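Input structure tokens:
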């Protein structure tokens, strides 16, 4: 008996992810959105107005980072209204850095601007970005003049972090700059080549180099909705920043070790001489305990630092794709729900 023919679902050949539309736009805007239902309508209204005023051809690539609210629906509706709004739905929440990467991978504009969904990156600056880009800069980044819209704690911790990063790494990450910037397609192409998992986009942006300049702006408060970052997320973000750009913490362990070995040698010498002159005495319990506990603590810290690097090495070694795309809208040939792996990652 011939084997029964299984009805395989008919699938159109998928267009290459991030396929170049018929006409290459001047500007690609990339918006990562995670549970942003409250703000998307305001965003598209204001962004649309600004872009219409500029008179440039554009696409807006929205990456829905596994939102659990109505973000996907709202984005699909905006895509239906304006096909220049393209949507990438990720299979789960991958975090802002990876969502942004998915968006950057899919852009085809001559210049690319990542933008926060909450309008904290005023779209009105894009005109100035374009002017400087046309003057020949490859990267124009926005620097916030004052962080007075952030809390005191966020301000101080952010400043301390950037000061420390400058000292321990050899990439210059401009303080008070975010992801909001314009990048020439060449820069984006260079970024596509950096496939590390533990991404710290601001660091990668600086790492690739190119001709850069900045413009100042006042960072407004969120237009609607609430922040997706808490201090724990920011702390992990800071760890990625430090470990991704510096191996100084690993070296610190060596110096700690040397210092304490030296101290122990001197102390041993002192004990030897003292015993030779005055003989032995029993007391010394307290100092022994202090030394043991202190050394134990240092050793655990150093092990932890090594662990931070080892863990990252492990996740890089697995070489998994950076993100998984659930569906795309507006990239040609696809239907919502079309399962297509992140073949380009
Ligand atoms: N975001 C994301 N995935 C996440 C967290 C945040 O795509 O897991 C997006 C979010 O939708 C927003 C941007 O990243 O467009 C910045 O997030 P948010 O405004 O919450 O950060 P803050 O401005 O408070 O640092
Ligand atoms: Mg924000």
């Amino acid at each position: 008996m011939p084997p029964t023919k299984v009805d395989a679902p008919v699938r159109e050949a998928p267009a290459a992810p991030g396929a170049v539309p018929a006409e290459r736009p001047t500007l690609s805007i990339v918006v990562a959105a995670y549970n942003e239902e409250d703000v998307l309508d305001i965003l598209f209204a204001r962004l649309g107005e600004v872009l219409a005023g500029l008179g440039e051809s554009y696409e807006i690539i929205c990456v829905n980072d596994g939102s659990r609210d109505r973000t996907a629906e709202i984005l699909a509706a905006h895509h239906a209204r304006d096909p220049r709004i393209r949507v990438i739905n990720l299979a789960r929440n991958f975090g802002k850095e990876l969502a942004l990467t998915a968006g950057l991978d899919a852009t085809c504009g001559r210049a690319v601007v990542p933008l926060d969904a909450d309008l904290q990156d005023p779209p009105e600056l894009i005109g100035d970005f374009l002017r400087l880009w046309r003057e020949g800069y490859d990267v124009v980044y926005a620097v916030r003049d004052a962080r007075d819209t952030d809390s005191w704690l966020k301000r101080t911790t952010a400043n301390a972090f950037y000061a420390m990063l400058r000292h321990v790494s050899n990439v210059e990450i401009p303080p008070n700059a975010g992801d909001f910037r314009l990048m020439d397609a060449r820069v984006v192409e260079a970024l596509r080549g950096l496939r590390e998992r533990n991404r710290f986009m601001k660091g990668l942006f600086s790492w690739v180099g190119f001709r850069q300049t900045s413009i100042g702006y006042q960072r407004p408060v969120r237009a609607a909705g609430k922040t997706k970052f808490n201090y724990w997320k920011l702390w992990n973000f800071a760890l990625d920043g430090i470990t991704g750009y510096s191996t100084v913490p690993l070296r610190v362990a060596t110096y700690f070790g040397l210092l304490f070995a030296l101290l122990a040698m001197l102390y041993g010498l002192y004990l030897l001489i003292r015993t030779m002159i005055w003989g032995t005495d029993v007391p010394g319990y307290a100092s022994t305990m202090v030394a043991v506990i202190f050394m134990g603590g240092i050793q655990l810290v150093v092990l932890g630092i090594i662990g931070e690097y080892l863990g990252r090495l492990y996740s890089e070694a697995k070489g998994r794709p950076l993100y998984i795309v659930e569906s795309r809208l507006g990239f040609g040939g696809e239907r919502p729900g079309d399962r297509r792996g992140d073949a380009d990652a």
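The pocket of uridine-5'-diphosphate (ligand 1) is lined by residues 32-34, 36, 65, 93, 95-96, 99, 116-118, 120, 222, 227-229 (CB under 6 Å). The chain is about 45% helix and 15% strand.
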